[in-house]
Amino acid sequence: MQQENIQAVVVNIGDELLMGQVVNTNAAVIAETLNKMGICVKEILTIGDNKAEILTHLKHLWSQYHIVFITGGLGTTNDDITKSCICEFFNRKLVENKAILEHIEYLRNARGLVLSDSVRTQALLPEGCIALDNIHGLAPGMWIEEQNKILVSTPGVPSELTGMLDDICHRIKRKFQPWHKIDKHFKLMGISESALSDLLQDFEHQLPDYIKLAYLPKMGIVNLRLSGYHADGNLLENEMNKQADRLKAEIKDYVFAVEDTDLALLVGNLLKEKGCTVGTAESCTGGAIAHQLTSFAGSSAYFKGAVVAYSNEIKHNVLQVDEQLLEQKGAVSQEVVCQMASHVLQLLDVDYAIAVSGIAGPGGGTPQKPVGTVWIAVADKNGCQAQCFRFGTKRQMVVERTVQTALCMLYMHVLKQ
């Protein structure tokens, strides 16, 4: 089968999405899934529960794309009109699907519930469509092929959508042979998005038209994604390797990882690989670094514990930070944060320790130490390294940037050992 440049649109239906009552996570899940398959998602739309609007958009989108992927509006209430709109658009009747009806009856009986007329309508599907099994709910998904195109419709409940995605992906692969897709990821620190864009202007201008560079900043870190689509897989692979090498040469002073992985997981994997452990001593982050490090299964292999030393009393009594040092230098200082790191290293008996102390705001700042001033230290048995940062004036941003920067400092420190 010849490679095709398959293009798709994602349509999310529901007034609750437009009103902000429900966060539209489905769009991201579908777009990520399709893009990984080499299918280019060109548009993501959100439409209310309005028949005329849905039909108008369907007419336009069906003429433009190979795949129209719709979520939402398949329930039993009066505002669930997606199914009837699809029937009208394709000029098809609703017919009862016996297998779906039996499945619904089984689920209702298992729960001791009566099969009402409204629930029974879930078994009505557009004539000729393929029913997609819903392992987490009652409403089946729908797959319609016409004019060498596909319309997919799923429930809007996120768990029900994700339960259907594997089946949908297998069907798409049998129907189409999408272009080859390659992504390469780079994590950078120590440079802003705008400065990075200036640095890479010439690089971007020299890229082939089938390769693009995307900037994805996140709290003090910039993720770069080099993406390529092409019908010729060998050509794409060779060119992507060539461009990735060029890019690495340009960003060598700032790049610290080449994986599309959560930073805390990246740190954890590195510690496991080296058979090492870590603990934290946290003031302004209130345990947020420990939370990040323990967010993944298996984190007990490398994380031993944390001391949230928010007050000077705890810094002195638990972490044995010198009381005179706290008075003379203040809690937000290189000397204090290094003592926090060095002492928690011994207290928890770990190979590495992170310590942070800062002024998250909105109050507490001084001319010498304004809000957003944070000291971060990383210690091991050979000593302690500390740096001072200014992370702005918004409290949550200060905390999040401190967490990300501390994890990055730890990662770079362990990587060099």
Q: What report would you give on this structure?
A:
The chain has 417 residues and is of the alpha/beta class. Helices cover 41% and strands 25% of the residues. The protein contains 16 helices and 17 strands. The strands form 4 sheets. Strands 2-1-3-8-7-6 form a 6-stranded mixed β-sheet, with helices on both faces. Helix 2 (25-36) packs parallel to helix 7. It is elongated. The mean pLDDT is 95.
What's the quick description here?
Helix content is 41%, strand content 25%. It is α/β, with parallel strands linked by helices and 417 residues long.
Assembly category: single chain
User: Mind telling me which CATH architecture of the largest domain this is?
Assistant: 3-Layer(aba) Sandwich
**Biggest β-sheet: count, sense, barrel?**
6 strands, mixed
The value of Rg in angstroms is 27 Å
Structural key phrases:
417 residues; alpha/beta; Molybdenum Cofactor Biosythetic Enzyme, Chain A; Alpha-Beta Plaits; Maf protein; 5-stranded mixed sheet
Layout of secondary structure:
Blueprint: E1 7-13, H1 15-18, H2 25-36, E2 40-47, H3 51-64, E3 67-71, H4 82-90, E4 94-96, H5 98-110, H6 117-120, E5 124-126, E6 130-132, E7 141-146, E8 149-154, H7 158-175, E9 180-189, H8 193-199, H9 201-205, E10 211-218, E11 221-230, H10 233-250, E12 255-257, H11 263-274, E13 278-282, H12 288-293, E14 303-308, H13 312-317, H14 323-329, H15 334-348, E15 352-358, E16 373-380, E17 383-390, H16 395-416
Parallel strand pairs: 1-2, 1-3, 3-8, 13-14, 13-15
Antiparallel strand pairs: 4-5, 6-7, 7-8, 9-11, 9-12, 10-11, 15-16, 16-17
